[in-house]
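New to this. Please check this fold:
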Amino acid sequence: MTVIKVLLVDDEELIRAGLRAVLDAQDGIDVVGEAEDGARALGLVRALRPDVVLMDVRMPGVDGLEATRAILRGADGPPKILVVTTFEADDYVYEALRAGADGFLLKRSRPAEIVQAVRLVAAGESLLFPASIRRLAAARGRGAADGGAVARAGLTGREGQVLRLMARGLSNAEIGEQLHLGVQTVKTHVSSLLGKLGARDRTQAVIAAYESGFVTPSADGD
């Protein structure tokens, strides 16, 4: 069994202890370290090479946004980063996602939701991008006269369909079922549209889709 190595980053010891208790109880997940701030997290990422970092977004000193940027800028084969926060509609969270974080999790989430979120971002084929953050992304893009990155990217019709389904949080397998395509074909379309958009990952592609107005919160089932 492949084990998902997790690093916890939060300035509250009680939060870290609660997350560790939830995750260490799961088969296939191992909490390999803890950090109380973003500066400490940078060194632990290099030393421990976690697969997933649960990153508190608001911390004294080096906050989660700055730490996310530094980790993704400096690490070779960087970990997936799951932003953990108290507030749902939070500009800090949105900026962390724009910087390359892979998903979003509320601190009040149920244990099963925390475990599922770690497994989803580790797999890298689904998206944790709640309605509140979608609305923030759409609001940020209002008034873009040129239609934004999606209009400039020259996506094919099929790539546009895949992007819309990605924005709904569907995995590659689920997209394949919707469009009657094989999973490998979906992966090819995802890779192509990421390249055209200049997006690091699915999250950044979906942010571009909302900011450009290509996808709207009301149109994706919210």
